[in-house]
Specification:
Elements (H helix, E strand, L loop, with lengths): L1 H14 L3 E8 L13 E9 L2 E10 L5 E3 L5 H7 L1 E6 L8 E9 L1 H7 L4 E12 L2 E12 L4 E14 L1
Antiparallel strand pairs: 1-2, 1-9, 2-3, 3-4, 3-5, 5-6, 6-7, 7-8, 8-9
């Protein structure tokens, strides 16, 4: 009985927050996993309320080849785990929402006191039952505060509540 009550409390706590678990594709990688530049970076993304994390897991190249990262050690997580904040106001009476987000490699920022990239994302999403699709533009700032806007896009697909 105790396990049932504990499980019910977990479900209630999780369902109180809007969440998204899925894959996000960005047409320019935050940090390349291999030496050659990629055409598309695939990130695992998990949102819980306003907080979200992304981690690059694969790259797809222009010639159709791909690289899947299999080494998720502490150094990789330190340099590549992006943590961010997002606001997702829903539009009334329709299953569309707007997403405004910002993320950076937080663990690397804490240890080095500098950031390699800061991404600001503006997107539009469609949610139907437990499935969500969203896409938008990314404004990327580098460590010297140069901005790249209009060249980077993202697309995400996954389960949402």
């Amino acid at each position: 009985m105790r396990k049932l009550v504990f499980g019910l409390l977990i479900i209630i706590a999780v369902s109180a927050f809007p969440f998204f678990i899925g894959v996000e594709a960005v047409n320019i990688p935050p940090v390349t996993l291999t030496a050659s530049p990629s055409m598309l970076t695939l990130n695992a993304r998990a949102d819980l309320g306003m907080l979200y994390v992304t981690l690059p897991v694969a790259e797809v190249y222009a010639d159709g080849s791909y690289y899947i990262n299999e080494n998720f050690d502490a150094n990789f997580l330190l340099n590549n785990l992006n943590v961010g904040l997002a606001i997702r106001p829903k539009l009334p009476l329709i299953p569309l929402y707007v997403r405004v987000a910002a993320d950076l490699p937080l663990l690397n920022f804490i240890t080095t006191q500098t950031f390699s990239t800061l991404d600001l994302k503006l997107g539009l999403g469609f949610k139907l039952l437990f499935f969500a699709v969203e896409g938008g533009m990314v404004a990327r700032f580098d460590s010297s505060m140069n901005i790249d806007f209009g060249n980077i896009f993202y697309f995400a697909v996954g389960g949402a509540l």
